[in-house]
From TrEMBL:
Pfam families in alphabetical order: DsbD_N
Domain of life: Bacteria
Protein's name according to its UniProt entry: PLAT domain-containing protein
InterPro entries registered for this protein in UniProt: DsbDN, PLAT/LH2_dom
Location of the PLAT domain: 290-328
Length: 328
């Protein structure tokens, strides 16, 4: 996707490594307290840093839940501008052959970071370089359901407070240890926008305890689900209309958000990096659906939209889902 930079974007990078001992924030609010970088209620009870696994794991720590039933491998927290970042990982599945990692970003109040599509006002979507990893065949970064933010510069899409981006990791050899190393570039914004670069590392031994800690499980639960894996309460695309001709080309979307429909939102992307403006709420499309409009007058060349796949991320009060259709 083309990066659209705000005019206030500054060239500033801060990368100072640190290790913190943390306890959860019971209300899960969008705050970041000094000495409490996690600020997440995902663990039951206090979370403590314990001994390093071995000399080979000098860059990773192990954190245990109060119940002692799940283990989490983690890099140290890394300080960045108005934020802290770390890489976490755990094994799951039969015999622990699958790995789920997560990049956790904890932001100071008033600051935000971006989704894979930063929105109309511009921003920097996150970038991930896993090429320095060892025994890794493939990685897939997943994005939790984002939020829409409005400010004088326009509308953006992203996250505030504390966010974990899950990463599905497939080892090249599932019977060997895995070294995860990522160069993580992302942007954060308040009154100014700042690019951040961090390199994070965590080792995942083959004999690591199997089971996802609640922090990673909760992050996975926030990933928009396909129609095939939808749960009760997930939003549904009821119908869509595409109008490419005339003086008002547009796409109309009717979405059923269930209860609290006024809290629902829609984000749209097109294949081949075709630029689409953000959907705007119009009116109730039917007795059960909310109507959104994508005004194509601000899009790229509308004549080139035919044949492209539209990917919708639907975010409601009770769940989140994805829907796709091809423009005909």
């Amino acid at each position: 996707m083309t990066c659209r930079l705000p005019a206030s974007y500054l060239t500033l990078n801060v990368a100072v490594a640190t290790v913190c001992i943390t306890s959860p924030d019971t209300d899960g609010a969008d705050t970041l307290n000094k000495g409490n970088p996690m600020n997440d209620a995902g663990f039951s009870g206090h979370v403590h840093r314990v001994a390093l696994l071995s000399a080979a794991l000098v860059t990773a720590t192990v954190t245990l839940s109060a119940t002692g039933q799940t283990a989490e491998l983690s890099s140290p927290w890394h300080e960045a501008h108005m934020s802290q970042v770390r890489l976490i990982a755990a094994r799951r599945g039969d015999n622990g052959q699958d790995i789920v990692a997560g990049i956790q970003v904890a932001l100071q109040p008033g600051w935000k970071t971006y989704w894979r599509n930063p929105g109309d006002a511009g921003g920097v979507p996150p970038e991930f370089d896993w090429s320095g990893s060892g025994n890794v065949a493939n990685t897939e970064v997943l994005y939790p359901a984002p939020k829409r933010f409005r400010d004088p510069a326009g509308e953006t899409i992203g996250y505030k407070g504390n966010v974990v981006m899950p990463v599905l990791v497939r080892p090249a050899d599932p019977d060997q240890d895995v070294e995860l190393r990522v160069k993580f570039n992302f942007g954060i914004c308040a009154d100014i926008c700042v690019p951040v670069e961090q390199e994070l590392t965590v080792n995942v031994p083959r004999q690591a305890q199997v089971g996802l800690p609640s922090l990673l499980q909760k992050a996975l639960d926030l990933i928009p689900r396909s129609e095939a894996s939808a749960k009760v309460g997930d939003p549904k695309l009821v119908q869509h209309e595409v109008h490419l001709s005339g003086d008002q080309p547009r796409i109309l979307l009717d979405v059923d958000f269930g209860s609290a429909a006024h809290e629902g939102d829609v984000f749209a992307e097109a294949s081949d990096d075709f630029y689409l403006p953000m959907p705007a709420r119009m009116q109730e499309g039917s007795t059960t659906a909310s109507r959104f409009e994508i005004d194509l007058r601000e899009a790229d060349d509308v004549s080139k939209l035919k044949g492209k796949t539209i990917r919708l991320t639907l975010v409601g009060a009770e769940g989140q889902s994805e829907a796709t259709f091809v423009v005909k």
